[in-house]
Amino acid sequence: MVNSLKKPWLLMPVKLAHDMLPYILPALSVLYKKELPPWHSYSWKHLNFRNPMGIAGGVDKNAKNISAWCGLGAGFIEVGTVTPLAQNPNPGKIIDRNPNQLALWNKMGFPSQGVKDTLKEIKKHSSKVSVPIFANIGKNRDTPNDQAHEDYIKLLEAMHSHVDGFVVNISSPNTKDLRVLLEPANLSRFLNPIITKHRNLDQNENHQVKPILLKLSPNMEKEDLLSAIDTSLKLGFDGWILTNTTAKYEENLGFGNQGGGVSGKPLAERSKEILRDVVAHLPAHVRKEKIIISSGGILSKDDILERLDMGANLVQVYSALIFQGPWFFQQVAQN
């Protein structure tokens, strides 16, 4: 349970608090900026992570607060989900929270200012930060699935020179039929042109390899999950984010039957189960070469250490920043 009196933003309407954060965060980062000592540092390929804690996709959708999150101690930053064209959130209610259950619900649906404006923000901030920046990329909701790969290719082409890596997001429950692309019958056909374009872009930029990861759903059956791991591994993906929000949640959370996805504490056990299954499935030499990022229900330092002990290389947080505050990274590294 969270004491809302000590965290006044939890007393505000959740949508208002969400909308105000991008404007308040720069000031908070100045007030609370600290040079954190390295903590569980990690190097992989050409990237160096001073600590293993990153912001998950969805925290900084339009890359407006890259400098602020770096100043607050994030070890890496994932911006987005970025879409080729600007699009609004889904209609109706799109976000809610349950502080007593440490649960966050959203049905945003890839709201994005579009790749052109997002790139302007990345260029504005990237020279000021010293942490890796990943772009979480997704299709516009009006793009049919049989053309979805074209949206992802457009984003690779536009952003390749300006970020350190990519996250292919087809695991959100908030874009209609998006998760159909994760099904075994569709996944290889969808991913193949994307990875081919990615390799060509790497080769054309003096071998400045930009890792590409696949973000997976917690609602996949074990057989389909491991099939997706094998398919993406065979195609040459560099790692995985485990996992996105869950579309299967209990009614007692108070979110009703609205669809969307839940993160926070209710996702923790399923996220750990997915991590455990993937680590057990991958041979040791593959785990050494690839990267596994665990996300979902990570709310404390103990949670972080547990995921690292389980085999994750890095972790990401979203709900912890809501319920613990944006100085979460500093609290973890200093305690």
Describe the structure.
The protein is an alpha/beta fold and 335 residues long. The protein has one domain (4-334): Aldolase class I (TIM Barrel), CATH 3.20.20.70. Helices cover 37% and strands 18% of the residues. It is built from eleven helices and 13 strands. The protein has helices at residues 14-31, 66-71, 115-126, 148-159, 184-204, 222-235, 268-281, 284-289, 301-310, 319-323, 328-334, and strands at residues 42-44, 47-49, 53-60, 76-82, 95-98, 103-106, 133-137, 165-169, 212-216, 239-242, 261-264, 291-295, 314-317. The chain has an eight-stranded parallel β-barrel, surrounded by five helices. α5 (184-204) links the parallel β8 (165-169) and β9. α5 runs parallel beside α6 (222-235) and α6 packs across α7. It is globular.
What does the secondary structure layout of this molecule look like, with pairings?
Layout: H1 14-31, E1 42-44, E2 47-49, E3 53-60, H2 66-71, E4 76-82, E5 95-98, E6 103-106, H3 115-126, E7 133-137, H4 148-159, E8 165-169, H5 184-204, E9 212-216, H6 222-235, E10 239-242, E11 261-264, H7 268-281, H8 284-289, E12 291-295, H9 301-310, E13 314-317, H10 319-323, H11 328-334
